[in-house]
């Protein structure tokens, strides 16, 4: 995910992993988008984000109050 470095996005990047959530400042440039696309193509098949954020496990957990 490529997101602006605003609000809670830097924290999200740290929690999930900066290889999964990449930040940019200002307007996204064509070069930045191309670099991010190249980054995505470099991932091995079956790559998984931080296991704490596995969607299947999140669905299984009861919501906390």
From TrEMBL:
Q: What is this protein called?
A: Uncharacterized protein
Give the originating organism.
Aurantiacibacter xanthus
């Amino acid at each position: 995910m490529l997101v602006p470095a605003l609000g809670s996005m830097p924290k999200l990047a740290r929690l999930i992993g900066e290889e999964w959530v990449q930040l940019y400042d200002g307007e996204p440039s064509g070069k930045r988008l191309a670099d991010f696309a190249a980054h995505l193509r470099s991932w091995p098949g079956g790559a998984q984000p931080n296991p704490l954020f596995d969607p299947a496990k999140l669905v299984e957990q009861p919501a906390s109050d």
